[in-house]
Amino acid sequence: MVLVVYVIIAMYALLTIIAGVSQLIAKTFHVNHFIFIVLSIMMLASLFIHDKQLMIIGLIIIFIGMHIVAIIEGFVMNGELAYSHHIVRFIVHIIIIVMVLLFIK
To answer: Where are its TM segments located (predicted)?
Structure first.
């Protein structure tokens, strides 16, 4: 199950990197896109932290950063907050944190 948790975190980080890079390519440079990519790389790096508490703290900080950037991006692109998007993102982040708590030693 440990491997499954690592794969889920890696896939989430890689998909976020792909989304950030595609936004950078399709549009003009925005700091938000770059921050998404940096946070995703940090998420990948968190997989190499062997201390469970540090990994959880790192993921929580990364997820908070992703939420903040997503909120800013929503206001910049759409002029409003997409609540369903942020609720789904929050649920995914909670599931990942719970999986790390339960299955990573």
So the answer is: 5-25, 31-49, 56-77, 83-104
- The structural domain count of the chain equals 1
Nearest-CA neighbor of 99 among 35, 14, 11? 11
The pTM of this model reads: 0.89
**How many residues in total does the chain contain?**
105
Residues 6+ apart with CB under 8 A from 62: 39, 42, 43, 46
Q: Give the pLDDT confidence of 29-62 residue by residue, as tens digits.
A: 778 888 999 999 999 999 999 999 999 999 999 9
How would residue 77 be classed by pLDDT, with cut points 50, 70 and 90?
A: confident
User: Which structural domain range is residue 99 located in?
Assistant: 2-103
Q: Distance (Å, rounded) from C-alpha 20 to C-alpha 17?
A: 5
Q: Which residues lie below 8 Å from residue 8, measured CB to CB, with a gap of 6+?
A: 96, 99
Compute the distance between CA of residue 80 and CA of residue 103 in angstroms, rounded to an integer: 37
